[in-house]
Design brief:
The structure is a single chain. The chain has four domains: about 150 residues, Rossmann fold (3-Layer(aba) Sandwich), CATH 3.40.50; about 160 residues, Rossmann fold, CATH 3.40.50.2000; about 160 residues, 3-Layer(aba) Sandwich (Rossmann fold); about 160 residues, Glycogen Phosphorylase B (Rossmann fold). The chain has 26 helices and 25 strands. The longest helix has 19 residues. This is Antifreeze protein, type I. Pfam families: Glyco_trans_1_4 (PF13692).
Length: about 725
């Protein structure tokens, strides 16, 4: 019988009750979702009581068959050996595990000491010598965070450390809970974690400030609350102290409004996993400034004395609360989600054997749902952004593959999507018959490779697409068809589009002014509200957005005139900038991520290349924008005073009709002929604060929702017989 070679072996003491076991469990789960095999090698730590059982998290993984536990006498072969918890090696091992690994990483998930004593927990040099003696000199040493890295450098300046931290990961989908308002009639502050004196402030006054007494707040503490009570000398009446392990952290976090964590000033916190768990659960966190390298702008920072003020501000402003929650969730998903772990495993040559899916327990039938989303190249980001807006809102059990002809394929990849690039006809400079054959062959390959059940196409039904649809009637084909085509253009495309099984139509604010051919075919379309990449709750607040863009207190204007790939956007820019600078505005020029020519240099103007730009819209008092689908609906939905300059060179998109409707309804100002004096006349209106306030007010009066979630729900709920059963 051939010897089993595991993808990953994890060596640790699996009795640790806190973050160590939670981190191991998260990595094992991510590996299982990618069909990677994991073996656990238990080595007792000299610092753990002999009678302590395995952590419940580890036991559950073993019961479910997600990982295998190596026997004490069993030789183990693996591609990658991960060793966790340096304190295991503060003494010689009684029995050396028999492990053969292609590469070994020692995850330094605890600092050697603290501020007062850098050697309090272990002697790094002595631990390093033992680890090298057991596993060889090629062991790679990876700190779990910058704090641990700095502490190791303090005690051993010449330590050879991996260039990247082996950071924590978390399954946001598992922890996340949608919230319907606040927990109670007063703010509920909480924290959870194992009982350790260093996890609490030494000064009783700081404890009182961070977890205040009084009828205007409640405090819930899961684990370690008795330490705080002892330091205070009494348990405040508004405190609910719960024994560690009496409630699951996931459920506990649903009972609090704000997570507050401060600790002994001498402690070097290795990472702060409980903080990450709160973020993933939808609970804002208030922590010390020293955590900023780990959690960036996803947390609120301050001292214990700031807690009451910060909590009160959040509780009185639900929109602000939702904004902080949304930003933290997105940060947790992108920085510390499962995909980040799979990406670093790929650097070791260990790659997922299938697209990410949920782990299925024994006896369950696995249902694999996969959507292939195909976008045109386009002159802007509209096609690709709409598909990404839908894809990021699909249920967890639906996998997404994005195939795009856009230059912005790298943007989709950076947003975390499995992305395939299809060179466009323009890029290949191919004749139409050859391009049709290339497109069809490429789509055939992607269908065979990814085995989708549904293909959603946000582009015109080119012959290569139509032929592929006809060749694959077993798949469900959806045309994501934006409305507002120009009058008298595109009737043939509507006829070709009859080949699709369904039509999904993103909403159009200016629909009443739509005179294009999609209007007559609208009865067969499933219609949703206008689709935007971000929800309003995901936008940065004004101060954060201005800080990110390094803007001062002067009024700011955003110039967003498209990719510059159709018409010459440079001509009016200089005039606009001169005019607005003369009125005291600071200028930000948004350069498209797919622009094929550089943005013209304008003295005193900042040029940025960001995606999505909408995240920063609250920094601006005014926007000057083209009237493409995305920017048009984002600026109206988010009530940004805007002057629209419609692009008159588009082949299909009726930007002029869209802009005229915006002007007619009072949600924006419009310049149809920027080459004329009309430009300065309209700008003179736009610089007046009362005009901008009126535009924003009118936008809020005619506000609409984001159809992305409804589109994703509809797509995922197509008849069950259209989905493949694994």
């Amino acid at each position: 019988m051939p010897e089993t070679v595991y993808d990953v072996a994890i060596l640790s003491d699996f009795r640790y009750p806190g973050g160590t076991s939670a981190s191991i469990a998260a990595e094992v789960q991510a590996q299982a979702e990618a069909a990677l095999s994991t073996v656990l090698v238990h080595v007792p730590s000299p610092h753990q009581p002999r009678a302590l059982p395995f952590s419940p998290r580890i036991s559950e993984l073993l019961r479910d068959g997600v990982a295998t536990l190596a026997r004490d006498d069993e030789p183990v072969r693996c591609k990658l050996l991960l060793v966790r918890q340096p304190r295991i090696f503060t003494a010689d091992l009684a029995t050396l595990p028999r492990i053969t690994a292609e590469r070994t990483v020692m995850v330094i998930n605890q600092a050697p000491g603290d501020v007062g004593n850098p050697f309090r927990y272990y002697d790094f040099a002595a631990v390093r010598d033992r680890v090298h003696r057991y596993f060889g000199d090629d062991v790679e040493w990876a700190p779990i965070s910058s704090q641990v890295r700095d502490q190791v450098r303090q005690v051993v300046p010449d330590a050879r450390l991996a260039p990247a931290d082996w950071h924590e990961i978390i399954d946001v989908a598992h922890w996340w809970r949608d919230r319907d308002g606040f927990v109670g009639e007063v703010p509920v502050i909480g924290r959870h974690g194992r009982g350790d004196p260093v996890k609490w402030p030494l000064d009783p006054e700081e404890i009182r400030q961070a977890y205040p007494e009084g009828d205007d707040t409640r405090v819930r503490i899961l684990g370690g609350g008795e330490i705080a009570v002892q330091r205070l000398g009494t348990k405040p009446e508004n405190w609910d102290v719960i024994r560690f392990g009496a409630e699951e952290p996931e459920e506990f976090l649903r009972t609090i409004d704000v997570f507050v964590y401060f600790h002994d000033p001498d402690l070097v916190e290795a990472f702060g996993r409980t903080i990450l768990e709160a973020m993933a659960s939808g609970v804002p966190v208030i922590i010390g400034e020293h955590f900023r390298p780990t959690f960036d702008d996803a947390a609120l920072y301050g001292t214990p004395a700031d807690v009451r003020r910060l909590v009160t501000e959040l509780y009185r402003n639900p929109a602000r609360y939702r904004e902080v929650v949304s930003r933290a969730r997105e940060f947790a998903e992108h920085r510390y989600g499962h995909q980040s772990h799979l990406a670093r495993l790929a650097d070791f040559g260990i790659r997922s054997r299938l697209a990410p899916t949920k782990t299925v327990k024994a006896g369950q039938k696995a249902e694999t749902k996969r959507v292939l989303m195909v976008s045109d190249n386009g002159a802007g980001m509209g096609h690709l952004s709409r598909l990404m807006a839908i894809a990021r809102r699909l249920p967890d059990e639906v996998d997404t593959v994005i195939a795009t002809q856009s230059y912005a394929a790298s943007v989709a990849h950076q947003e975390g999507f499995l992305t395939e690039y299809i060179p466009s006809r323009k890029v290949l400079d191919a004749a139409k018959p050859r391009w049709t054959a290339i497109l069809r062959a490429r789509l055939e390959h992607l269908i065979e490779l990814h085995e989708p059940s549904v293909v959603a196409v946000d582009c015109l039904p080119h012959p290569g697409i139509v032929e592929t649809v006809r060749e694959h009637p077993e798949l469900t084909w959806v045309w994501v068809r934006r409305a507002m085509w120009q009058r008298g253009v595109g009737a043939d495309w509507i006829t070709e589009g009859k080949v699709f099984d369904h039509v999904l139509e993103p909403g159009e604010f200016a629909a009443i002014a739509d005179e294009g051919p999609t209007v007559a075919d609208r009865a067969r379309a499933f219609q949703v509200e206008p689709i935007s990449f971000l929800d309003e709750s995901e936008l940065l607040d004004r101060d954060a957005a201005k800080s990110e863009l390094d803007l001062d207190d002067r009024p700011a204007v955003l110039l967003q005139l498209g990719a510059g790939n159709i018409n010459d956007i440079s001509s009016p820019i200089a005039r606009i900038c001169r005019h607005l600078t003369g009125h005291g505005f600071q200028l930000v020029l948004a350069e498209s991520t797919i622009a094929t020519r550089p943005m013209p240099k304008v003295p005193g103007a900042k040029v940025v290349r960001l995606y999505p730009v909408s995240r920063y819209l609250r920094a601006f008092d005014l926007a000057i924008s083209a009237t493409g689908y995305n920017s048009f609906h984002e600026q109206i939905a988010f009530a940004i005073p805007t002057v629209f300059l419609p692009n008159t060179s588009t082949r299909l998109d009726d930007q002029v009709g869209r802009a005229r409707f915006a002007a007619a309804t009072g949600v924006a100002l419009v310049v149809e002929d920027p080459a004329s004096g009309e430009l300065e006349q309209v700008l003179d209106q736009a610089v007046r604060p009362e005009v901008r306030a009126g535009l924003a007010h009118r936008c809020r009066e005619l506000s609409f929702g984001n159809g992305g979630a409804a589109a994703a729900k509809w797509l995922s709920e197509l008849p069950s017989n259209t989905w493949r059963m694994a």
